Amino acid sequence: MSRKPASGAVVEGIDFDRWAVVLCKPDAVERDLVDAVLKRIEGAGVCVRARTTLIAEPWQAHVAYRDMLADPGRFPADLPARIDDAYSGQRVTVALAHGGPDIHARLRRLIGHTDPTKAVVGTIRGDLGNDSIVAATRAGRLVRNLVHTSDDPASARRDFGTWYGPGRTLKISDFDRCSVILCKPDAVERGLVDAVLERIAATGATIANRREVTVQSWQAHVHYWDLLVDRDWFPDRDIPACLDDAYAGRSVVVALAYGEPGVHARLRDLLGHFDPTQAAPGTVRGDLGDDSLAAALAEKRLVRNLAHTSDDLAAARRDFGTWYGAGRRDLLIPELPAQSTAAEA
């Protein structure tokens, strides 16, 4: 017997703590204010992506206003009809906004009060709104207030499934926006995985698909292929044995980091020098590392330096196949359309 997924579990692989859905409502589209609204959001330091214009279906508006529809004691009896009148068959524009863990609260403050006449100057509704709840009530319709953003991570998950569709994920251009993070055995053993991932997330990267892996020898060999190919550079050490000693049968944690082009270089800079004693303060290895190349050489082993991130696009593709499996491209997210066919009709 199949089990229904938990409420709101319409998509996986996205860190909805850092992603919000922006809905530019029919009045924003009709008044040609979509660009102005999204520019205001970007001006607040939020990255806006996957903009899509579509024709709203009745069910989408019903889900979007589900809390109001399920609370008839507070709202007019004809609320379903008002929602249908406002949305069904009308153009809306949706987009994804990426920021820090406080993105939902920040965007809600930016858009302002539900009633544009009560929204303060500097908010989107306060500056661009031209309607009021009084006028809407008198006319028996919904207030026209331009834009909605997700209230919290659970709402963002539901909004994403409503407007983009379940099973869809964030657009990435193959691996140029995706890096694989490997938290090495020493990070796991020292209980530093969360600290490492929090440092990476603080750069604005979206962390997804975290998983713990018990390392097989082949994975360590593929990951460190360059050390094996150039093992004659290390005459004092048996590199295959060192890799097996350090990794085989031990636990690591891997995750995907999504960001803008250049994410690979930014994350490599964040990790710091491979020798923790040479890594600068403020880097992961400089602040959290407790080993040194000198100690590793003396003990004829690999240096313990907590984490790895993909060097570049090609490395990210190889790292993904190594740690997730080449057959798991479903984790990488199919591309979202720039604009829906329905909106072009």
Tag the structure with descriptive keywords.
alpha+beta; Alpha-Beta Plaits; 2 domains; four-stranded antiparallel β-sheet; 19 helices; 15% strand; elongated; disordered C terminus
| CATH topology term of the largest domain | Alpha-Beta Plaits
Number of helices: 19
Average pLDDT level: 86
Shape: elongated
Helix content: 25-40%
Quick one: biggest sheet?
A: 4 strands, antiparallel
Low-confidence stretches: 1-11, 169-173, 334-345
Give the H and E element order: EHHEHHHEHHHEHEHHEHHHEHHHEHH
Strand order, sheet with most strands: 2-3-1-4
Q: How many DSSP-defined strands?
A: 8
Overall structural class, as computed from helix and strand content, comes to alpha+beta
CATH top level class name of the largest domain? Alpha Beta
| CATH architecture name of the largest domain | 2-Layer Sandwich
User: How many domain units?
Assistant: 2
What is the straight-line distance between the termini? 41 Å
The whole-angstrom Rg is 25 Å
What is the CATH homology-level superfamily of the largest domain? Nucleoside diphosphate kinase-like domain
Strand content: 15-25%
Secondary structure layout plus pairing:
Elements: E1 19-24, H1 26-30, H2 34-43, E2 47-55, H3 58-64, H4 66-69, H5 79-87, E3 91-98, H6 103-111, H7 124-128, H8 133-139, E4 147-149, H9 153-163, E5 178-183, H10 185-189, H11 193-201, E6 206-214, H12 217-223, H13 225-229, H14 239-247, E7 251-258, H15 263-271, H16 284-288, H17 293-298, E8 307-309, H18 313-323, H19 341-344
Antiparallel strand pairs: 1-3, 1-4, 2-3, 5-7, 5-8, 6-7
